[in-house]
Design goal:
Elements: E1 38-40, E2 49-55, E3 61-67, E4 77-83, E5 92-95, E6 98-101, H1 103-111, E7 116-120, H2 141-146, H3 149-164, E8 169-179, H4 181-192, E9 198-202, H5 209-223, H6 228-247, E10 255-256, E11 259-260, H7 261-267, H8 272-277, E12 282-288, H9 296-308, E13 315-319, H10 339-351
Helix pairs in contact: 1-10, 3-4, 5-6
């Protein structure tokens, strides 16, 4: 059966979290030689993908996926890892025999003949389930326990450990492509792990998401004709919610805007711009001017801070008229998300010189 394309903009609901924890400047990590990926047959996967598992230190398994277009680790190619946005959704869709994929599948089909393209399920996400797109209100307890910035960074670094140990993965060019929350995670991984040579930061935040939410509320209410007093009251209500989160930062049951307090306190402890300023990776930044999940002003702040700190090597793309999905305004209905943006990222990733180790 030809797979049905289900594009999940899971990151569209709440986006732009921030770096939590103190990540030391990590030296290049070593990976166990000959680490063999455990491939598993999954008849629910659409054609062109392979599933594998990697053991975590606690004995559980990380579930990962590789695009099998052209080859499956049989030719030497650089590595491209996709990081999706917030929420307990799967990377794939499966229901009543119908199979499909999220944005990862679009990227894999574009890049699978030039990169080893990989991703992983978030811990606790159910394979094939996209009903929780962008949120965690109905997510398993395991998801809410591990849905922190530290947790996601740890998962991607484990994925890197396993994939960079494969003999046909070119470890000299390692690209992380993150969207929304995934962009913030990609920045944090690159800040902690020098094996990452390139970061494509799509629709992520600059300051903390707490600032983004206030700005979005202020702009939205002003557009709808609310009075200054009404806007001020709404902002104060938001700030009251923030205080509740940080008064109980480890709660996995108390929710704010579809996510547990624990997730918010983790992601909103430090801005993602700080992560990017700590990376040695090449940077590709992209944002839409009409983004109503992460305001363009957040992106502008990010760019200004990079300039202020001398990071003039970043490739910067603002897309007028585009929203959080970065889909072209004149694109056909159900057109693949951000297709031309992915084309630009791939050209950049293959043509941009790699930083020498330790520079």
């Amino acid at each position: 059966m030809k797979p049905t394309l289900y594009i999940s903009f899971a990151f569209a609901g709440l986006i732009s979290p921030v770096l939590a924890g103190d990540y030391p400047d990590a030296k290049q990590a070593s990976t166990p030689p000959g680490w063999t990926l455990a491939f598993a047959k999954n008849d629910k996967l659409p054609p062109g993908f392979r599933q594998f598992t990697v053991n975590r230190s606690d004995g559980s398994e990380l579930v990962g996926f590789l695009a099998a277009k052209g080859d499956s680790l049989s030719h030497r190619r650089p590595l491209l890892i996709y990081l999706d946005g917030s929420g307990a959704q799967s990377q794939f869709y499966y229901k009543d025999g119908k199979r499909g994929y999220s944005v990862f599948g679009i990227l894999a089909n574009k890049a699978g003949d030039r990169f080893h393209v990989a991703t992983s399920e978030k811990r606790g996400a159910r394979f094939g389930d996209m009903t929780a797109a962008g949120a965690a209100t109905s997510a398993p307890a395991e998801y809410n326990h591990h849905a922190t910035l530290e947790g996601r960074v740890s998962e991607i670094r484990l994925l890197l450990d396993a994939l960079l140990a494969q003999p046909n993965v070119d470890t000299s060019r390692v690209v992380l492509l993150g969207q929304s929350e995934g962009a913030d995670v990609a920045a944090a991984v690159a800040a902690a792990d020098r094996r990452v040579t390139h970061v494509a930061f799509l629709t992520g935040g600059g300051p903390t998401q707490l600032f983004d939410l206030e700005l979005l509320r202020r702009k939205g209410m002003a557009k709808s004709g609310a009075s200054p007093d009404e806007i001020d009251k709404a902002i104060r209500e938001l700030e009251s919610d923030y205080r509740k989160i940080f008064a109980d930062p480890s709660s996995e049951s108390k929710m704010f805007m579809g996510h547990a307090y624990k997730r918010w306190s983790s992601f909103c402890s430090q801005p993602p711009v700080d992560s990017l300023l700590r990376t040695h990776a090449k940077l590709f930044l992209a944002h839409g001017s009409e983004d109503t999940s992460v305001p363009i002003e957040s992106f502008d702040l990010l760019v200004v801070e990079l300039i202020r700190h001398g990071r003039n090597d970043a490739e910067i793309h603002r897309y007028p008229g585009r929203d959080h999905s970065l889909t072209a305004p004149n694109a056909a209905k159900n057109a693949p998300a951000m297709s031309d943006v992915f084309d630009a990222v791939l050209t950049w990733a293959l043509s941009t010189a790699k930083n020498p180790p330790g520079d």
